[in-house]
Structure formats: C-alpha cells, structure tokens
Amino acid sequence: xxxxxxxxxxxxxxxxxxxxxxxxxxxxxxxxxxxxxxxxxxxxxxxxxxxxxxxxxxxxxxxxxxxxxxxxxxxxxxxxxxxxxxxxxxxxxxxxxxxxxxxxxxxxxxxxxxxxxxxxxxxxxxxxxxxxxxxxxxxxxxxxxxxxxxxxxxxxxxxxxxxxxxxxxxxxxxxxxxxxxxxxxxxxxxxxxxxxxxxxxxxxxxxxxxxxxxxxxxxxxxxxxxxxxxxxxxxxxxxxxxxxxxxxxxxxxxxxxxxxxxxxxxxxxxxxxxxxxxxxxxxxxxxxxxxxxxxxxxxxxxxxxxxxxxxxxxxxxxxxxxxxxxxxxxxxxxxxxxxxxxxxxxxxxxxxxxxxxxxxxxxxxxxxxxxxxxxxxxxxxxxxxxxxxxxxxxxxxxxxxxxxxxxxxxxxxxxxxxxxxxxxxxxxxxxxxxxxxxxxxxxxxxxxxxxxxxxxxxxxxxxxxxxxxxxxxxxxxxxxxxxxxxxxxxxxxxxxxxxxxxxxxxxxxxxxxxxxxxxxxxxxxx
Amino acid sequence: xxxxxxxxxxxxxxxxxxxxxxxxxxxxxxxxxxxxxxxxxxxxxxxxxxxxxxxxxxxxxxxxxxxxxxxxxxxxxxxxxxxxxxxxxxxxxxxxxxxxxxxxxxxxxxxxxxxxxxxxxxxxxxxxxxxxxxxxxxxxxxxxxxxxxxxxxxxxxxxxxxxxxxxxxxxxxxxxxxxxxxxxxxxxxxxxxxxxxxxxxxxxxxxxxxxxxxxxxxxxxxxxxxxxxxxxxxxxxxxxxxxxxxxxxxxxxxxxxxxxxxxxxxxxxxxxxxxxxxxxxxxxxxxxxxxxxxxxxxxxxxxxxxxxxxxxxxxxxxxxxxxxxxxxxxxxxxxxxxxxxxx
Lengths: 526, 343
Prior knowledge:
heterodimer, A: about 525 residues, Rossmann fold, 4 domains, 6-stranded mixed β-sheet, B: about 350 residues, two-stranded antiparallel sheet, globular
C-alpha cells in the first residue's frame, strides 16, 4: 500500500498524464479530431461536453478499449501506448464505469477481488476467509464504511455498487482514476458522500478525471475543466476563474442559426394532459398539457428521465402512477397495444432494433401498420396498397431503388423515412418520436421536419425526444427540459437559446447570473 | 448495455423490487424443500422399501451417471450465463456419454489394458467437448444449436462403432465399481461422491470456478476485470465433455457394457442442472444444487417403480418441473434486473 510511484510527479507538480492532439475515427467518421488534455497528480480535472462531443471515446482510449488513431499519450513525460485494458491497468490508469460493471451474482468479496484472488500458499485453492477480510478492509480503508463481504452485488444499492467498483479500482493503487458519470444513478446524499470520497483521493495524490453532465458537480469538485465539442477540446479553464454560464457557452459553441424556425401555429384543442405522472426511478411528478397542432420537444441528459417519459406515453414503461388524459378521457398507457388502439404512434430511436424489418421491402414495411385497412375478406388489396406506398414515397421523398427493394439497401435517412411513413398512414392523433434524426443526413432531416410540421398542421400532436439542440429549436413550439427525473423547465422555443436549454438540463439553470465578469450570452469561448 | 445506459436511472428508491425478489426467492426455496420432503414422505408411506439402506444405495448408484453428466452441464451453465436462448447449454452431453461408453466397451472387448480404455473414453468425451467449444466460442454458433448438431454427430458415431447394438464389457474396474464398499454402499456411489466433491471444490474453491461464474454473471464485467472470457467458456465445454467420459465409466459398470439409447438421459440431466438453481442464493446453477436435484429426480423415478406407477410418467413430471422452475427463476431474475436498470 505504501509504494507511491507517483510521488515524484506530485512534488514537481508536473503533468502526470498528457494527451496531445489525440484523434480517433470510426469507419471514417471522426469522433475525436485532436484533443489535448493534461492531468496533474493531486488534481481533479473535469471533462464536459454535450452528447456526441467525444467524451466516451476519450475515456475508452484512456482505458485501452480501443487505440487512438493519432496523437500522443505521455505518462510522467514518457510516451506510452495503451493497447489493452490490461495495459491501461499496468500504467496505473483505472476507469470507474458508469454502468457499474459488476456481476450481480457475485458477492462483494468476489467482485472486489476478481482477477486477483488470494490463495492458500502452495495450493491452487481460494482463500475465501482472506478474500472476505481483504474486501472488508479495502472498503473500510477507502470509504470508512463496512460492507458485508458476503452480500450479493444484486442486493446492493446503486451507491453501494459504486463503492465496490471504486474500491476495486483503488486496490490496484492507480495513479490516474477516471470517473464516467458517477452520479447519474445516485440520490443526492449518496452523491455528496461520493464527492467527499473523491476529494480524499485527490488529497492522496491521485490524478482524477471527472466526466459529468452536471455542471454544478464540476464547479464543486474540480480544479480544472476541459470542454469538448465536436471531438475537439474547445476550452480549458481553472474552475475558480470561470462561471457556469461560460462553460455552457463553450459547450454550445457558435450559436448555430436556427434559420427555419417554426412559425407560431394556431393552437387546437387540448389533446394530452399529464398530471403528476411518475415512473419510480425514472421520472417523477411530470405535469403538462398539450394541444393539437403543437410540436413539443422533450430533452434531457442521460438519466434525466426524458426518454422514459416519451416511452411511458406509449406504454413502454411499467409502474406508472399519476393521471393522464388523452382527448378528454383518462388513460394510463399500459402497453403499446393500448396506445396504438387510442391513436398513438411511436417512432423509436434505434430503428434497426425496434422500428423496421431490414429484410422486408419498402412496401411491406410501410403497410405493416395498416394491413387491416387494406384487407378485404382476408385478401390484401394490392392496387390500393401500391398507390398508398407510392404516395408515401413521394410525400417523404424516400429514395429507394424501388418499392420492392429491401429496406437494408436504403441509406440511414431513407430508412428513417420509411419508419415514419409506416406510422403516418395510421392517422394517429399523437405522434411520439425518439431522436427522429439520429444518423440521418441533412437533406433527409429537412424532409422529416417538413413532414412533422405537416402532421401538426393537420391537427395531430407531435412530441419528440431529442438531444439535438438545433433540432429542438428548428421544429418545436415548446421544449420541456428534464433533469434528474423532474420536469425542471418549459421553454418557449422562440425565446429560448441553446444556453438556456443546456443550463436547465445540466442543473445550472437556476443559478444566479454571473456576478463577476459577466459574459454576454452567445459569445464563444474559443 | 446501451439499453441499460439509455434508461439510466435518475433517482433513488425502488427498494421494494429487491424486497419482492428476496421474498420470492425465499418462497421458492422454502417451497422446493417442502415439496421434496413431501414427495419423499409420500413415497416412504406408500412403500416400506423406499427408505431402506439398500434402496438408498441403489438410488445413489442410479444417480451416478445422471449426476456426473449434470455436473458437466452445470459448468457450462455457470460460464454461459442464464439467458435461455444465448446462454450456455450442452445438448450433446448424453449422446457424448453414449459414444464414450461405446469406445470404452469396445476397447475393453478388444482386450486393451483398462487404463488405455479409460483414457480412450475420457479423450473421446473431451474431444467432443472441444468441438462444442470451437463451435460456440470460435464459430459463434448459438450453444443451443451448436450442441444440437454435435449431439447428432455423437449419436451417429456411436451407431457407426457399435452397429447400434449393445457391447458387453467386463473388467476388474467394472466389477469393483458395482461391488459393495464401506457401509455396504457400492464403490460406484463412493466414486460419485468423490467426483461431486472434486467439482464442488473446483467451482467454489478455485480461481477457475469463481472466474467461470463471473464470466457467466456478466461477461463484460469479467472482461473489464482482465479475464480472458472466451477461454473460460471454452474450458467449460471441454470439461463438460470430460464429464461425459467419466459418466461413461459409471454407465458401462452399471450396465455391464454400452447400450444404445443413452441420449434418453438428456432431459433428466438438464432437469437436474436447472432445478439445482433453486438451491442457490445467487439463483445460479451450482454443483451442490445439481447434486440435490439429481438425487431428488432419481428418488422420484425409484419411488414410481416401487409403488408401481408406470415410469412413462417420469418424462412428463421432469418436463413440468423444468418448466416451472425455469419460469420461476427467470421471473425472479427479471425483477432483479429491473431493479438494476431503474433504481
């Protein structure tokens, strides 16, 4: 326990880990375009960035999950190559994963010591007594708490699982510890005790990289902060010299002109009303009402409950409580069947998993939802079917080799349009779309937006969940921001900007405006 | 994984899930023990022979073959995880045993030294296990399908070498195994107990056992802990094949040779390994649990014989038990899982 290989680096206060212009692309799509980052022993360095900014890629490179394409990693001044998780470990880099990578069927002691189990000297047998003892001791040393080493991981609370995972990492005496969204699953008092544990680690001389969506955590915990945007490090600051608003500005970047912002629409009658809708563990006490003709955006970071809220409206989340009225009638969605029967259509995010049959043709996919209406005495009316599909293809500009081509052959954007077409024909009153344009090219995006606007104009209510700020600003009338399971703010799209959305989503929205050196919104930090 | 992270939890709570899962587990385990006791009691009342030492020794001997096979299957289930479609399973194990028994009996008949014959049987089993390992780990074929095909290979090979006829065999080891040892219990039963002990130690008191369980519990986590996940899965299939070889030694001793139709044991083997889950706190297959349920299944079969109920019923009873236990444990696990995702 007492050997401290990092002691030297700590004294000289020189950088312990340096990333220099690190880049990474997947199938030619750049995820990191050159990121530089410096970690010092005895420091907590925050890493923030909006979805898709490259945070996870960076963590995975540090953890040796995949190699960097370009750039250099230096550890205590020496160039190193992190070729595998094992290599990362040997270099003293430990990652505390957000997903709590622990087998639920193991006991605390087993999970803690897995891969490094004590044995009886000279025998190939596990020393279970020593395992228990060591596990208990390790948890106590690092967290000052006792955790029964015989309890199963499955029986622990999320916070306790987090403790096990961090202790696991610390047992290897790492020099560098990376936390990936450690509080996403924690209640606030649990987060507080985690923070004091992290502070203690810092005082012991570890270099800590702390990745989080929540800006108040960054300002509370970190000494430095680096902001990633579009795979680049766009800003680096001493936390003591910066205000949250500046961080948000850096995350958002040059305000993208939302050019074709939606014109205010004449509102129809109220279609959907939620009061105190809750799903335990996902979202709580959400109330809002929405009218026909509206397009409403729901947004929120990972773990905010926004996605669950959308899914709940389609009956995909269980244990719902609270009240919901649709078209004036009370209705708590229990299953997708239920929801469809009441005129709700849902376009899921991962179309390949949930939305489309890749090997079926464009025609077959499109008519799947309305076969009943096309059928007479058990026989499908082929002529009507073809006409309808042709109409859909024209309306959405679906580019396909033909209506009989398997959907697999279409581009991502056109596949998404097929999913959309499939639901358009149902004539639903409420359309729910989950990240409708992820992986869709700009032209297809525009056509999808147009179609959504048309749906609303025809009297439907459209609700989309999206983390694409530009998308939200382009097509919605209102934006509901969720954070930590609560609806924290409803913004009018015409007056809201990216800052405000992000500020509310990251839990910095209710902070007072900066007292010192106020910065006009919209000024980029780069 | 993406599923989990996307619906990543927002707030605390949902302890009641864990409570339900716990209560459910206790109910199931308590219920299982009650059922076993009740069934045994009924048999004991209906047939005075049931609980005699001779009969129990007999049952132990009958359990040896099934038991050793289900130990092998238990290893595969441990390492492959619990998913009913993609999880680990070895459908070839009983057919493999038939092939090993045929090889063993033929080698003995041809006058081979018995050590050579034993080695031949064990190697045959391990080789087929290796084939399973390659199919599952290297070729990435779903275990259910991969081992279904090797099952047919084993059946086919057995028919080829035996012309689908019984092969009588004699030898010193065979005679010893069925002769009575200490406490008038046959040596075969003692051997079975020894094998059980070895496997309990292997799964519970070695690094291999713990890591195999870690791999089955959460393979991504095992990989993050630096384990060569596929090596453990592969080894579990090879060991399972080896078990088929060991079981063949017992089977040839009991039947005085090899005889066709060993694949009929498959359902009972699977039943023993799956029912064993009930006795585990972790709701995973264990050697101890498999041993208990293997004995239980043998006792039922034996009891049916003693009170003169057609043994044709056995298959149905086993099938129903599997269905019941597998659906129950799946239900409990799903509750646990939901808690893990949504807390």
